[in-house]
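For consistency, the fold was encoded as tokens, as this record shows:
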Amino acid sequence: MTTVINFQHEHERDGWATMFGFCSATHLDIVLQRLELYLKISDSKAAGSGGGGGLFSFRGSKTDTHSDLSRATGLLAYAYVSIYASLDLIVSRMETSILISSVKIARIVKEETGKFLVAKSFGILAQSMNKNHLKTDFVFASRNDLIQEMINYITQETNVKLQPATFNQCINACHALM
């Protein structure tokens, strides 16, 4: 499934990400390992074709739309994993892998559709961190990092401003994270 997805189609991206979420209900650690491996492989392909210089580098190519969409879709998969995974397990995995990777991916994505997916993912992550969902009062230290990334998207210092849908998604994500 990871090799045949067309990242240009919204329904394929959503379906692919949701698949990881459903699988995480019973196989959380395996799903997290597969996502990490996928993101490393997709990033090494981008690096080989003149793209970024590693998933967590800040030299990503601004014109590599496929790479941005694959990373952002990987983040969306992390978001669905956080919603569908067992509540007993997800709390410990949120801070150690999901939120750290989420912030790093958000910093790399430059393309508009990718930013929309990042904001959508952050909104879903906010739902998964909600006290009512978790049924516990656990406070996530990375929550402020997610909010800061949304603020960075909104206040970006470029000539190209966010499209209204992306701007609204960023505002909704900030609201959900508070």
